[in-house]
Amino acid sequence: MELSIVSTLLGNRENILEKWKVELQNLKQEQYFISISDDSYASMNNEFMEFLLRTLDHNHKNSKEKVSHFTDKYIQNGWPLVYFTKGLQAFRRVMLNVLKEEEKDVNLLVDKFVEIDEWCDSVINQLVHDYTGSWENVFEMQKVSLLELSASLIPVFDEITVMPLVGTIDTARAKLIMENLLNGIIKHRSKVVLIDITGVPVVDTMVAHHIIQASEAVRLVGAECILVGIRPEIAQTIVNLGIDLARFPTKSTLRKGMETALAITNKQISEV
After folding, report:
1. What is the reported pTM?
2. Tens digit of pLDDT for each residue in 34-70?
3. What are 164-169's contacts with CB under 8 Å, separation 24+?
4. Looking at the domain that runs over 154-264, which CATH code has it been given?
5. Residue-wise pLDDT tens digits, 121-180
6. Which CATH superfamily hosts domain 3-146?
7. What does the alpha-carbon distance between residue 94 and residue 27 come to, in Å, rounded to a whole number?
8. What are the E-state strand segments in 48-188?
9. N or C: which end of the chain has fewer CB within 10 A?
């Protein structure tokens, strides 16, 4: 931003801050900020005001770096993007009103308006960019965490492990299931793996294909796979689709599957 505009705005610092406080207080009435205490909101307003006044700099690159450094902290603390965008729009209105009072030359006034618009737009764009990048990273990390939790291999007895599956199985998740199965079998020295699909809502051709691939992979590393949780509606769907699951045992419940696994590993449960 031109030094002459910056000088004019900083010369009217108190006037700008006073008018902007009113604008931000009106913004507080919106539903986004109902849960934020008045003290926290007032403190944030002061920090935001001081930040923007410091950012009124002709060095555009430096301004972007300042914006990113400032917003990182508040993104992590959960401040909504709308606070910053609407706050900036209010700041722009206040600055334009102040310049209108100070500048009498219409042509110069228009040039200054354009300069301020470009500055505000660049700051808003940087804010949106920072927020988008941050939430994309958070989303990806949460997605990976959920995938890992949803394809866990649980050792229940010596040489017997269970993988309970919940939710839809897509290609990405099927790949993770395969990796966890094979790594878990080696780690736990499993002879029998029970894949429990009780929590899988739909078993179609693609899901069955992934399960068959997983069972074949289990067989190739020297273990046996038992598919449990075959509900009547799933059994009917498998038959109607002509899917062949005859290459490995299937059981209707985890309990029946566990009984088969114990028999395969020459174990039994006795009452004491």
Report:
1. 0.49
2. 667 778 777 877 777 777 777 775 554 555 566 667 7
3. 164/196, 164/198, 164/199, 165/195, 165/196, 165/197, 165/199, 165/200, 166/199, 166/200, 167/199, 167/200, 167/201, 168/200, 168/201, 168/202, 169/200, 169/206, 169/207, 169/210, 169/211
4. 3.30.750.24
5. 877 777 777 777 655 665 666 666 555 556 678 899 989 999 888 877 777 778 888 888
6. Phycocyanins (1.10.490.20)
7. 14
8. 154-157, 160-166
9. C
Type of residue found at 13: R
Tokens of 82: 């709308």
| Biggest distance spanned by C-alpha atoms of the chain | 99
Decide whether 3-146 matches 154-264 in CATH topology: no
Place of tokens 């045992």: 249
Tell me the backbone φ, ψ of residue 150, rounded to 5 degrees: -90, 5
Residue 137 is encoded by which pair of tokens? 């990273």
